Amino acid sequence: MTTESTAAEPAVTAGVKSSRTLARQRRRASAARFWRQYRTHRAGVLGLAALVLFALIALTAPLTVGSDVQSVTDAPGRPMESPSAQFLLGTDQFGRNLLGLVVWGARVSLLVGLLAAVLSVAIGAVIGITAGHFRGWYATVLMRITDWFLVMPTLVLAIALATVMTRSIGTIILAIGVTTWPTTARLVRAQTLAVESRPYIERAKALGGGHWHIMSRHVLPNVMPLVLAQTTLIISSAILAEATLAFLGLGDPTIVSWGGLLQDAREAGAVSAGKWWYLVPPGIAIAVVALAFTLCGRAVESVLNPKLGATR
User: Given Cys at both, which of 6, 69, 95, 235 links 117, Cβ 3.0 to 4.6 Å?
Assistant: First the structure.
């Protein structure tokens, strides 16, 4: 008996390794197939190229412009100088290099947008999956709360949260994340209901699969493509929301972001003084990044759900 068990162990180990290898091969094939379909969408590829460029700019900011670009006391120029050979985008109200500030602000704006979108989608996915799985009074209560958040203006709720909490990056992320999840929750719940109506879910339940097993092993993998597409679409909204909150003076005044630069320009009277170089660069950066994420999101959504028939 002992000999047979010993002989069976290598076979079991080989079977496990073989299944893992097969799973890795399937994932690689799936990723390759996704990329082949994605690159046929010219707008999506253009958006991805723009995002890669902005990501490189943000990651290399400490090397290209340095953290001292934020210093007010060591500003290299005079206040609100027009663009020149020395300062390609001019200077701000303190004499700081505006090009360096825009480059450095990309770090904060992209970080806040990404983390806020992840928080929003995580909340929406959890609520959507659980509401679609358990149903009954639990789903009714969650959906009524979701409806309340849907009808309430998102910006007003975010402003209220940002006002009562401390002014920091974490507050902005939390304010955006907890006010933008209802749409994701609705979409994920609808997908969860569709998944749980399939026969293999009934078989899993008949074989003794519990709630956690059903939701984590069967429902979640099927809703992940929807969650991924929704994340890329929400990031652009989160970046715009961060810029809006910072423009309203609810951001952290100690950090540089694109929305904060617009707020500084407004306080310095750049609009009435015609100092366009103070307003245009951060505004264009916000618009381009938001558009790039939207293009990528639409392309991902079209690849994962071809029935949408998005244009290429």
Answer: 235
Q: What is the DSSP letter of 187?
A: H
The number of beta carbons lying within 10 Å of the beta carbon of residue 204 is 17
Predicted TM-score (pTM) of this structure:
0.79
Q: Strand (E) positions, 21-101?
A: none
CA distance 84 to 124: 48
CA torsion angle for 242, 248, 250, 254 (degrees, to 10)? Answer: 90
Joined tokens for residue 251 = 């951001």
Torsion of CA 207, 211, 213, 217, to 10 degrees: 110
- Which one-letter amino acid corresponds to residue 103? V
Under 8 Å between Cβ of 225 and 305: yes
Residue 28: both structure tokens together: 């690689």
Contacts (Cβ under 8 Å, ≥6 apart) of 217: 204, 209
Distance CA 274, CA 237 (A): 29
Q: What share of the chain is helix, strand, coil (3-state, %, to 5)?
A: 80, 0, 20
For the segment 244-279, what is each residue's pLDDT rounded down to a tens digit? 888 887 877 788 888 888 888 888 888 777 888 888
**Is 161 in contact with 241 (CB distance < 8 Å)?**
no
Number of C-alpha atoms within 13 angstroms, CB side, residue 19?
Answer: 5
Can you list the alpha helix ranges (DSSP code H) found in the chain?
A: 2-38, 42-59, 61-64, 98-134, 136-151, 154-164, 169-177, 182-196, 199-206, 211-214, 220-247, 258-267, 270-273, 276-304
